[in-house]
Amino acid sequence: MRTVVAKFGGTSLADAGQFRKIRQIIAQDPDRRFVVASAPGKRFDGDVKVTDLLLACCDAAASGGDFEPALTAVKARFEAIAGELALRFSLEGEIDALRRHLSAGPERAFVASRGEYLCARLLAEYLGFTFVDPEWCVCFDAGGALDMPMTLRTMGAALRPLQNAVIAGFYGADMRGRIHTLPRGGSDVTGSLAAAAIRADLYENWTDVSGLLAADPRIVDGARTVKYVSYRELRTLSYMGASVLHTDAVMPVSDQGIPINIRNTDKPGDAGTMIVRRLPEGETKYPIIGVAGQSGMSVIQVEKLMVSDESGFTAVLLDMLKNRQLPFEQCLTGIDTVTLVIRGDLLEPWKEDLFREIREKLKPDYLGLTERQSMIAVIGEKATDACDANVRVLQALAREGVPINTINQGAGKLNLLVGVPEDRYEQAIRAVYAAID
Ligand code: ASP
Question: Is residue 391 within 8 Å of residue 434, measured between CB atoms?
Answer without folding.
Answer: no
